[in-house]
Amino acid sequence: MSKILVIDDESWLREMIRIALEQQGFEVLEAVDSSDGDAKARELLPDLILCDVNMGKADAGYVTLMKLRENAATAAIPFILMTGMADSAGMRHGMELGADDYLPKPFKVDELYAAVNARLRKIKTVREDAERKLTSLRTQISLMMPHELRTPLNGIISNAEMLATDAATLGTATIAEMGQEISQSALRLERLIENFLFYARLEMVATDADSVIALRSARLAAPAAVVRTAATSQAEMAGRLSDLVLDVADTPVPMAEEYFKKIATELVQNAFKFSEAGSPVRVTLSLSAEGVEFAVQDHGRGFSTEHIRRIDAYVQFERKMQDQEGLGLGLAIAKKLAELHGGRLAITSSRETGTSVVVKLPRPKNS
């Protein structure tokens, strides 16, 4: 049974709405003014709120809406404003504050039912979609984490055990080779854990409006050196420094150095991973009419349209066939960072021409 909170200072209207909604099987809660409504919404967490715009004083409903949207527990509750003055300016103001719908007074019972059912259907759809994504995430983690953790650990453990038991009979070259394998496995494990924690931190930031605002206030004045360092490092690790092509302008970026370096590192690493030695990986940074554009282009095998659509955390493309290491978090992290900073990540790809990943960000303020 869905709970609906009705906030209105007119008792007869509250009673009418309560009777009508109870006939449809809803549980109805009542609040007599803005303060009462704010308190009951936080305490009872209804599934939907119906609130009058003017209660005692003008725009009291807007105040209620604003307070509830600022609170994490009530921010997502569907909110319908009721008003006898549903002019376009007022409706626009309510929508800007986060209202989901308007119900102009006077309204018929059928109009009330239509508005309420529409909002509840929408929130049900959103919750079901979120549950599907959560289920998918759980499945990906349960399937991939054990393998991703065991593979580097097996490399570390097996080589370490051989060194511990057979060191006296092993040659110097063999010991050095085994030490190198231990180091590589440890670095792979370290990167796996770091990316897992990094993505989890971004998910937490995304749920806090103040944190997002703080992120977007950052500014990197000279990003060219950051890109060069990150791209060169990945090229050297892949043994393909001659394949790297850099064309980076020192245009300010609306992002902290740590995060922009992370985007550059992940995208360039993927470009080298999914392309053959001897083919170029082009890295560009420029200022366009839309804002700042950071792009990485390779001439590898490319992704299908379905693969591009499914870019998300813990998803790897054609894993059984390609056996690429890592949780597939690189693109997901870059995409999340772009969106948190008011931008977006776009991919164009084909089997014939390879892949181009472009991060588009707004112009920094005061630039």
Question: Would you kindly provide a written description of the structure presented here, covering whatever features stand out?
Answer:
This protein has helices at residues 11-23, 34-44, 60-70, 88-97, 109-166, 172-206, 209-216, 224-237, 257-273, 305-309, 319-322, 329-340, and strands at 3-7, 27-31, 48-52, 79-83, 101-104, 244-248, 281-287, 292-297, 344-350, 354-361. The chain starts with a strand and ends in a 6-residue tail after the last strand. It is elongated. The protein has three domains: 3-107, Rossmann fold (3-Layer(aba) Sandwich), CATH 3.40.50; 137-207, Orthogonal Bundle (Helix Hairpins), CATH 1.10.287.130; 213-361, Heat Shock Protein 90 (2-Layer Sandwich), CATH 3.30.565.10. Strand 7 and strand 8 (292-297) form a beta hairpin. By secondary structure, it is α/β, with parallel strands linked by helices.
Strand arrangement, largest sheet? 2-1-3-4-5
Distance between the termini: 53 Å
CATH topological fold name of the largest domain:
Heat Shock Protein 90
Quantity of strands, as a count? 10
The secondary-structure class comes to alpha/beta
CATH superfamily of the largest domain: Histidine kinase-like ATPase, C-terminal domain
The total count of helices amounts to 12
CATH class of the largest domain: Alpha Beta
Q: Roughly what fraction of the amino acids lie in strands?
A: 15-25%
